[in-house]
User: Fold this.
Amino acid sequence: MRRSGSKRANARVLAILLASGGCRDVTVAESVGDGAAIALVTFDNGARVRVVELPPEPIAIGTPWTIGLEVEAPAPVELEIVAWPPRTGGREVALGSAVSAADAPRPADDRVVRIRVENALGRIDPELVLAGPWHPTDVLLSVQTVAGARAARAIAGPRTRDGLGWLATLAVDPPPSAVIAARAAAPLVIDGALDEPVWSSAIAVELVESQGGEPFGLPSTVRFAWDEASLYAAAVFVDDDVWSDFLDHDDALWKQEAFELFAFGRTTTGRYLELQVSPRGVTFDAHFARHRQGDAGYDGQWQAAVIVDGDLDHRDRPDKSWTVELAVPWAELCARTDASCPPRAHDVLRINAFRLDRPRRGPPLAGALSPTRVPDFHAARNAATLELAP
Assistant:
């Protein structure tokens, strides 16, 4: 853990909170008046919680870590310490300065970690673990003192308008998404139906916001399978307005709605493939010798099929979803990337998949299997790892 002798000052803690989106509803702490404290929160029940020791940063997903606190109170208290993804923890801020705390409840989020510490008094070192999938590069820590159904409100120190005390913002080192390709017993028929047994056993992974990895908002899943002949991918996208006007192979599908698959091979620094499919089943493909240095004349040997639950030709009629299924021969992957042939169980490839959605109203939306961290779908550094199941 980080010792108090090398701590950040109170102003530094608040500066990080501000940078994480905690600007409006975090109140800057009064002077702590204690050289050993990194931050100090005072509650309306008389309890005070000091941060005296921080863990080494960045925090690793799945690895336990502790934060050193000192609790002052007339009697032992129960603490609730919460680790928040920044967008969820800073919900009030995101909604703007005219929104009251009562109007801005923090949404349910499976990534939130809550722990209770009973009979807290004096020095405590509560342990937390961030579980995957976790994509944000920061975590916000809050504290409250609780007594039965009542939670005391923070009244001094770094705090929110709804009474949470902020302890710190810590850097996180989130890994790329990790997915498994299920083993298919026989070659699949590429028809978009997803009725082969392997698709029932393959794990469906929810897409996230394409750059930062926050929840995407549109139900969108991808799953993978493989056999000795091909790598298979399937995507199911809930969509009340499925549309695309493109009709010809290699049209600019990315300008409307599309599914995109990037195959980088074993590494993320060399040759790769980009494959796209529109809701009409129109395809686009490109081969790249290195980042964005592509071959416009490339036409790959791969298959794709789409089923639309709706009416592509009448946007005034509500739709339900569209489903994509594709197969990429290993011969193609090994010729165009550094993937190994023949494929073997436990081989690992780097891939990414995206959904492009362009609603009738509002800005375009993009979901990703693993967030790119930068505004570039070709950015491979954080591409997902895909392991071939036995």
Summary: Residues 4-173 form a domain with the Coagulation Factor XIII; Chain A, domain 1 fold (CATH 2.70.50). The chain has two domains: 4-173, 178-388.
